[in-house]
Amino acid sequence: MRKILVVFLMASFFFSCGGSGKKKSKNDRGMIIPSQKSKSFAPTRPIGMVPVPAGSFVMGNTDYDFAQQQNATPKTVTVSGFYIDDTEITNAEYKVFVEFVRDSIVRQKLAERAYEMGFDGTTSSGATGLEAYAFKDMSDGSGTQSAYQEYINEMADGRSGYESERQLNWDIDLIWDKYEYPDRDYVEVMEEMYYPPEERFNGERLIDVRKYNYIFTEIDKNKAARAHLNENAKRSDFVITDTVNVYPDTTVWVRDFNYAYNDPLHNDYFWNEAYTDYPVVGVTWDQARAFAAYRTQKHKAYNQSLKAKNREDIIDYRLPTEVEWEYAARGGKQDAPYPWGGPYLADSRGCYLANFKPKRGDYIEDCCAKNQDAGFMYTAPVKTFFPNDYGLYDMSGNVSEWTQSPYSTASGEYTSTLNPYLGAGREIPSKTVKGGSWKDVGYMLMVGARDWEHKDSARSYIGFRTVQNIPEGANVRYKRTRQ
User: Fold this and answer.
1) CB within 8 A of 475, min separation 6: which ones?
2) Is 149 a domain residue?
3) In 3D, which of 407, 440, 400 has the Cα closest to residue 282?
4) 325 shares its domain with 455
5) DSSP assignment letter at 83
6) Tell me: the pLDDT tens digits for 310-331?
7) Residue range 229-279, pLDDT digits in tens
8) Sulfatase-modifying factor enzyme-like domain spans which residues (predicted)?
9) Which string of DSSP letters, residue by residue, matches 36-66?
């Protein structure tokens, strides 16, 4: 009884001195004073992105609806600021994603086999064979596991959901040369990643790209917003888990064009070094979303590795909405039919301002304004043509681009005028694509023109770029535009 009374008196003393037993704030006089001081927030500009300021504009076709599609009715809307990639995502950038997925799958398999054999990441007998790829020890470097790591390993034995908490060991390079595999277990794990013998051509041993599956999660915000109507709703009810095969479909070069010899592009476009700076194609809407999710994951992982004082809030990357894309493509110019102003597709010298199909049966531009000797049958390297006034390249031509928005012919009539958005539209198969491509005529290059494609379709003329929101009030230096 005496002990209980002492504890009660000590608790009363702590509360009387400031509430929690912690050192009380200076001069708060018992009042609530925020510990975080108000200051100018300047987000770090992601590499390869440019900022687009918030503003209003008239979206859709104005007096240039030659095809009378009547699916792009003019409407004044307001858009928040955002960062956007200055070019389409290139083969080189998408390869980083593909190779990460490949390596993480291999490392996961190796680590699981090592764990089954008793290697838990704390062994120190010499980093040979499978032991080197065991799950990473989360201790402070002393060689003994932290209490948290012990807990994770215990919980990960079952189906508790903690399996993903175990960290892969990325400190040791993978061994790809089959003649240098360290042991039989390593061989067995690696062989699972390759096509089986009966599916090999001329005995060529290649990795089975069907295994390149990336798993990521999203929150269904629309469903969560209505959760108050269901008192039994749980947070897990709003989590959507997607598994997406990330390898681009290289057969699009053959499938999209019957009776055309595009086999060399099927073989080389994604992997040959000659196409490093060309826009990635053959990706579906879901693959583009998966890339954005990976980009977020990668950036957040790096941010978490920094000292606490150097960390910043990382805002998710995503596909642009249709309205954001069109707003950025206009480059701050009102009523301009093309990103460079308009209304012509060539400059005063007769050199083209974008990569498109200039004439019937003629896919090659005689010259482009930035490089008079250039002419392209298919896609062109990014930054070949001049950017718009925001510094964005190929917003018209080269490849059409996925947007986050589902497609509807009448969407402009019933969407809001404030950041118009129809939601991610996961259940809606048709998605809006913008910008026109290398195989399109000039009309499709107009910023107000609209087109669509099934979200599970990959095409040789559709790529994408990503955006990142800019918080209201952030201190960002925007590029001035010419009106």
Assistant:
1) 40, 41, 42
2) yes
3) 400
4) yes
5) E
6) 888 899 999 999 999 999 999 9
7) 777 788 888 888 999 999 999 999 999 998 899 999 999 999 999 999 999
8) 48-467
9) SPP----PPPPTTEEEE--EEEEES-SS--T
**In 3D, which of 125, 155, 159, 120 has the Cα closest to residue 138?**
120
Q: Give the number of other Cβ atoms within 10 Å of residue 390's Cβ.
A: 24
- Quick one: which of 52, 51, 69 has its CA closest to 60? 69
Q: Report the distance separating Cα 347 and Cα 321, nearest Å.
A: 30
Question: 70 and 129 in one domain?
Answer: no
What type of residue is 200? R
* Interstrand relation of 55-59 and 462-463 (parallel, antiparallel or unpaired): unpaired
pTM attached to this predicted model: 0.88
Quick check: is 335 in a domain? yes
Is residue 116 one of the residues assigned to a domain? yes
Q: What is the DSSP letter of 131?
A: G
- For residues 157 and 174, membership in a common domain is answered with yes
Which residue range(s) make up the domain with 125?
92-211
Q: What is the Cα–Cα distance from 449 to 453, expressed in whole angstroms?
A: 14
Q: How many structural domains compose the chain?
A: 2
Across 420-432, average pLDDT? 81
